[in-house]
Amino acid sequence: MQIDQVDSEILPDGKKVDRYRLTNSQGMQVDIGNLGGAILSLLVPDHRGRLSDVMLGFDSLREYQKNPPHFGVIIGRYANRIAHAKFTLDGMEYTLAKNHGENHLHGGVKGFDKQIWAVQEVKEEDAVGVRLFYVSEDGEEGYPGRLSVTVTYRLTEANEIRIDYYGVTDKKTILNLTNHAYFNLSGAESGSILEHELLVNAETFTPVRDEGAIPTGEIRSVRGTLLDFLKPTPIGDRIDNDYDQLRYGYGYDHNYVLKEGAGILGLAARVRDPKSGRILEVATTEPGVQLYTANHLDGSLVGKEGVRYGKREAFCLETQHFPDSPNHPNFPSTVLAPGEEFTSTTIYKFLAK
Question: What is the pLDDT of residue 67?
Fold first, then answer.
């Protein structure tokens, strides 16, 4: 197994950012950038052993500084949405940036995805990786507390990417971290993912009230709805059917409540591409996973090798606590207090059959 620093770029503000490459003995290759902690590329074998990059993104690191779709980056302090960009903690109201209509999305205008992270290489007996460090100062993007975050990416010999998140704070705050990887198991340039077969290990989801994608607070059964993926089903089978939840999200953009629950590393989802034979299994200790089918890509973004990414040409499975949890006491808490440790693990495992 091998880790190399393979490239560096100077950003317009004069700061340097680096690209690290992780490789295992089977040829799987993962590139990580310390700008936003982005997974830049992900070469995975198909059923014939041929490698393809299954991760949407950009050729240049500096493009991630603009990065409207959050390709492959670390999301924080709060992944997903907070209604009206406000929450109350111990009787004090905090106001955040309204960067998604009236709501707050993915940590704000300059969230963790826009920051340059410190890097330490990781070399272990059965894995190589990078450990990323960032300190979010008290008041950054409106959040309370000086928060120290560590995110460790490891590539294993089992063709797994393991992501371990860790955080501590000096003042009570909220924290919800994820990675916003956009996958296409046929290859990042291969077009539609609607034939990919998806299983989500969840019997309930958190419905949204309108196009703003803020949860109503209800936890609803998937059974009898078009959001039921308890059995493997092509993503495109029902995506354009007449159902208010699909209309609100312009397709799938919903948080599923996982069977295992918080703190237990269990299967969240499984995706199979019938063309390449590639399979992605997602395991997590998080209580939820957001399924997003890239409904807002429109061909205007030029990605790797000049490819323009269009609508529903990728899927995201963002392991997380629930959207808008600070404003829903019945949702799992995202509060982190001094003396406590935030820990979370997600594993992306790749197979081919």
Answer: 65
